[in-house]
Amino acid sequence: MQADDGSVRSHYRRFMEALEGLSPAEREMRFGKAEQYLREAGVFYRAGLDGRERLWPLAFPPLVIEAGEWRALEAGLRQRADYLERLLGDLYGERRLVRDGVLPGWLLGANPEFLRPLADQAASGRPLLRFVAVDLGRGPDGQWRVLADRTQAPSGAGFALENRVATARAFPDLAKALQVRRLAGFFGRFRETLNSLNGTGGARVGLLTPGPLNETYFEHSYLARYLGFHLLEGGDLVVHDDEAKIRTVDGLRSVRVLWRRLDADYADPLELYSRSRIGTPGLVRAIRAGSLDLVNALGSGILETPAFAAYEDAMAEALTGGPLRLRAVETRWGAGSSDNDIAQAPDWRFAPSLPLPSSPRAVPDAETLRQAFAARSADVVAIRQLALSTVPVFADDRLEPRPVTMRVFLARGEGGWDVMPGGFARTADGPRGDTMAIAAGGRTIDVWVSGEREEAPVTLLGAPAGPHFLRRLPGSLPSRAADNLFWLGRYAERTEAAARLWRSAIERAGTQEEPSPIDLARTALLAQSGVGSAKAGETVDTAAGLRDLAATAFGIASRIRDRFSPDGWRVLAEIVALLDEAIAAPVDRDDAVLASRVLTRLAGFSGLVHENMYQFSGWRFLECGRRLERAMATANAAAAFLEAAGDGVYEALLDFTDSRITYRRRFSVELSPETVVDLAILDPLNPRSLTYQITAMRGVIATLPGNLAGESLDKASRRAARLLVRVQTADPGEVDAAFLTRIARDTCDISDLLTERYFAVGPQGEIERFGAE
Question: Is the peptide bond before 296 cis (omega within 30 degrees of 0)?
Fold first, then answer.
């Protein structure tokens, strides 16, 4: 921010003057807008041993880089990306650097990132590197140095986008005044590049994620949604006839390009890391056959080898004919160093010379590494520590200097390397630079590149292909996503049923009467749902059990963020947070109020599903799960109440089906067994009745993939049709515990049949059922 004479640089001056003109209250209001956006968008980072999701730690103000300085950086970054591409091509091709003695052979032969099953993959001529990130730091001399190259599965591009949106919410006027360059064009060009690799076969690009337990899973789902890619896990794929295919509810669908976000050796347990449970058997075979492109190629993580920096100058000379403009920080390899003073120098740190293997291994402490370097071990490198420049960051309502690093992203297109005009920067949480990592408490700031003219807005929606707009239906739904949507619907309804039973039990407990048979039935139902105990004398916190059900629904929703409403996800998060607060303070809470608040939010969730979610395959599976679970819960509860008999049976049935007001409006205040059973169980116009659920479920099943009018019914459709006839033709006098128990059993069978057809079919079964493409 400051020049050598201490003055504020010109490209920062306007921003700092604007900040000085804001009152503390207005400044906090602007920061609050950004934080509100991050919270509502669900931007999180999973860090720490507990695996809890933490709000993305965005700080202010952004790092501002002047246009001329950025042009020089761009040139250096493009040159470096070209060097990395050539280096990877040599290591997985002719290996001239090793043959000519430029690079010690040990750094290749002993490297866990050198994947021997793909040792000659560069012979295909296809670029092995298409998306890279470079971590930069500026030293005391004002020169940028490379702290690390990220080529394995670079993370942070999605977070850079969200940083930009949030920061622009806080300072829209300043972003416009500084003519900050936009990021969307970079992603649009990258998307076009990957789509062009698909050819004309109509297959969609996939983004391959390790899954929701990964610390950057939010970014994976965000980018998949933003770019229109399939979000895929290893289990979503199957390799058949040397081709990778996606398991979808419509059968196997080809995929020819995968943007890889999991480490390479986890990708294929057959030929790489055998203990991987998140890969796809046979993926390497498809790559060798040339039917699948991975971005980046498996094995590209070898470029992150720390010891390579010690030979960077010589390798750059051999590969590009000259030195690099952006050079790595000074590095010495233990086996190749003759400087004995380094081991005792305070400005050097020591690290393993090779990337760590997939199998868990303890990293030696700093003293052990230092001693190993002094003994000239090949396992250790020494890296000169860079005294990082600082940026101003608001802390406790005042600006304080913080050391900063910057991550910049590059994508390879047909014309060469494209640099994102920005990125994201990380700052330490204190004046020292040893807590840069987000997981260790570091913070992030946006990077603004000031432009020389205002850029036109860019959209990734694209223009219609012809003169007339054509509405097209979404593509095939992966089986895993359909499975999660189905069970999200079930667990949302399961949570609601348990909350209704709990509220009724609380109201009954306030009467000071001895437990009736209906009370005991309600307690047994709560125990069956997992939120209570049926054991006499055992005390459990029902709120904790209800929280577990809600947390399961929330966890399922988190797995499908690319296909589910952020508002719906946020409602489930609020329910979990509400119950967590109640569990933490059990003495002061009102359980009846708590249960009602949970039910109110669940009603909001149901409304969002109906009003906000696009009603195609995904919605149909979620709706099917909701209707099936509500039908099962209603049948089970009604069977338990009717079997218990005695006073309060029909009040309990109306209460569980939320039909008290409807009953009083249609009938008298007095309860008649026939009218109560008819309204709660058989009335097709009551949206809470059992028949209504079965009717809705039958209608949704009829629209699921593979079910066409006029064709023979599949097993689930046949069972649902029979079940619907049974309730439509029943008389209230026929409805007893046995009748309802049979219905509950039939709904369980329908769930199993849907699972068998759409979710749990193995590769061979899919080929037989749908046919190979």
Answer: yes
Among the listed residues 172, 218, 175, the one whose alpha carbon sits nearest the alpha carbon of residue 56: 218
Q: Among all chains, which residue has been given the structure tokens 């403009």?
A: 325
Cβ count within 10 A of residue 551:
18
Q: What is the DSSP string of 224-255?
A: HHHHT-EEE-GGGEEEETTEEEEEETTEEEE-
DSSP secondary structure of 730-766: --GGG--HHHHHHHHHHHHHHHHHHIIIIIS--HHHH
**Identity (one letter) of the amino acid at 9?**
R
Sign of the dihedral defined by the CA atoms of residues 127, 133, 138, 142, in that order = positive
Strand, coil or helix: 345: coil
Residue 625, phi then psi, degrees to nearest 5 = -65, -40
The residues facing 148 across adjacent strands are 135
DSSP letters for 652-706 = HHHHHTT-HHHHHHHS-SS--HHHHHIIIII-TT-TTSHHHHHHHHHHHHHTSTT
Task: State the Cα–Cα distance between residues 608 and 49, nearest whole angstrom.
Answer: 34
Cβ-proximal residues to 267 (8 Å cutoff; 6+ apart), any chain: 208, 234, 260, 276, 279, 280, 283, 284, 294, 298
Return the closest-CA partner of residue 257 out of 213, 290, 219, 282. Answer: 290
Written as one letter, the residue type at 611 is: E
From CA 150, how far away is CA 568, in angstroms rounded?
35
Q: Parallel, antiparallel, or unpaired: how do β-strands 206-208 and 257-260 relate? A: parallel
**In angstroms, rounded to a whole number, what is the distance separating the alpha carbons of residues 35 and 28?**
10
Q: Which residues of 366-382 are buried (b: 16+ CB within 10 A; e: fewer)?
A: eeebbebbbeeebbbbb
Q: What is the mean pLDDT of the chain?
A: 89
The first and second tokens of residue 592, run together, are 């009846």
For residue 7, the model assigns a pLDDT of 66
Distance CA 197, CA 258 (A): 10
- Report the Cα 24 to chain-centroid distance in Å: 35
* Residue 46 backbone dihedrals phi, psi, to 5 degrees: -95, 120
d(CA 92, CA 76): 25
Whether 152 and 296 have beta carbons less than 8 Å apart is answered as: yes
**For residues 508 and 52, which has the higher predicted lDDT (pLDDT)?**
508
Range among 315-319, 387-391, 648-652 with highest mean pLDDT value:
315-319
Q: Are the beta carbons of 771 and 251 closer than 8 angstroms?
A: yes
For 633, the token pair is 């819960």
Is the backbone peptide bond immediately before 467 cis, with ω within 30 degrees of 0?
Answer: no
pLDDT digits (tens, 9 = 90+) for 311-342: 999 999 999 999 999 999 999 999 988 777 89
Contact assessment for residue 497 and residue 637, using Cβ atoms and an 8 Å cutoff: yes
Instruction: Give, in order, the Cα–Cα distances in Å from 389 to each of 139, 401, 407, 595.
Output: 6, 9, 15, 53
Cα radius of gyration rounded to whole Å, the chain? 31
pLDDT at 403 over 60: yes
CA angle 566, 568, 572 (to 5 degrees): 115
Predicted pLDDT of residue 185: 93
Which two three-digit tokens encode residue 610? 């109906």
Closest Cα to residue 402, out of 443, 347, 373?
Answer: 443
- Asked if 348 contacts 255 with a C-beta cutoff of 8 angstroms, the reply is no
Contacts of 585-590 spanning 24+ positions with Cβ under 8 A: 586/541, 586/543, 589/543
CA dist 701 and 495 (Å) reads 23
Q: Do residues 589 and 582 touch, judged by C-beta distance below 8 A? A: yes
Q: Is 406 helix (H, G, I), strand (E, B) or coil?
A: strand
Element holding 294 (H helix, E strand): strand 293-295
Structure tokens at 748: 């369980």
Q: Per-residue pLDDT tens for 708-764?
A: 888 899 999 999 999 999 999 999 999 999 999 999 999 999 999 999 999 975 544
Q: Angle at the Cα of 359 (from 358 to 364), degrees rounded to 5?
A: 100
